[in-house]
Amino acid sequence: MESSKPERIESDSMGVLPVPGNAYYGAQTQRAVQNFPISNLRFPRSFIRAMGQIKMAAAQANVELELLDPDLADAIVEAAQDVVDGKLDDQFVLDIFQTGSGTSTNMNANEVISNKAIELLGGELGSRTPVHPNDHVNLGQSSNDVIPTAIHVAALNGIASDLTPALALLQYELEAKAEEFMGIVKTGRTHLQDATPIRLGQEFKGHAGQAERAIKRIRYAANGLSEVALGGTAVGTGVNTHSEFALRVCARITEMIGTPLYETDNHFQAQSSLDAIVECSGTLKTIAVSLMKIANDLRWLGSGPRGGIGEINLPEVQPGSSIMPGKVNPVIPESVCQVAAHVIGNDAAIAVAGQSGNFEINVMMPVAAHNLLESIEILASSARNLATQCISGITATERGPEMVHNGLAIVTTLVPHIGYDKSAAIAKKAQATGESIREVAARETDLSDEDLDRILDPATMTDPNLAPKVSLG
To answer: Is 226 a catalytic residue?
Structure first.
């Protein structure tokens, strides 16, 4: 918000300083603005929403516990709802690279909600009356349990509402292509060399299985995030909070987000470590690696159109070159690969953050929060984009089936009938002469044409149950 009023003078425990006249934030936030002019990175909307949800639920719980005046609580709840709804996002002005506990951002939220509540009650911004940022908005809380709880809540929201549905869509599109392409037999590849035949649908089935397991993995990681630090206050002992506070707040937030949230039974681990966040980030990295594998397979299979593999056509979404007319590049898979690389980098920073706890608190929570929530967001967006702008429009070419019969790896099915060494000799001769495996085998073995047709049928090689059951005699 642009200030149209003269600056107001506020004070905190370190003295006085000017604050923009129209700002809902106060002295502690302004001091942090001055202390951390590091980057343009800010907490994402998902985190700010989680902070609002926690402050709202805290006020409601404190009324129930008869610790907070109902009229003040009503104003705090209304102000916190504005935070949840994004109406006060411009008041969250602090850099990610700040105090490692996130205290500056917790006070940013406390001051914004306090001043908005004061305004609703007809008071003066910055007066701290009748609603105080610490005594009322932060009642029963500490930055040391609020910030890690907010990270968990925001991540749970993102996983449930964004990432899991995006992965489910990707799985659906891949399974649809697997079914569509199941009748297409092509050359398999290992080490980028020809291998025994596989169905194009089986390759896509493998990709669909990766997406399916990605969903299972992230749901498992979400279970760990459901356990939160709230209620431990400063160091895990719960000083200055009611014994039922966290239980009541967690119940309310569970209703808000539709995902279970519960107070940890060991506050000392919950506040001194970021283990659940590190675990979740590791799962996100696994998903990123999985998406990169899928994207790179698509790039290879669609390479060409004349000088590459060219077994599939990727949707043409934009011109590919500023100098080569008609060139079209696999830009959607390339985008996915870049997202994956970024998520892998985010995970490295989170791993460092996770081991940066000293005794009763971790001191790299803001960067861990930023990277975790960014990874969830961009993985969801790229998975959805890959599904809708690439997978759904893929078509198969005739190139795959055309290469099968001239492939050398189909010699593998001769091994049970003539042995490994004779089969290897046939493969080498076919490579040297340019003949097919069948042509050389017809000349070099006693197998009949009928037997060779049956043994070297590429379709039967894609399903062991269909393969001939003749043993080497």
So the answer is: no
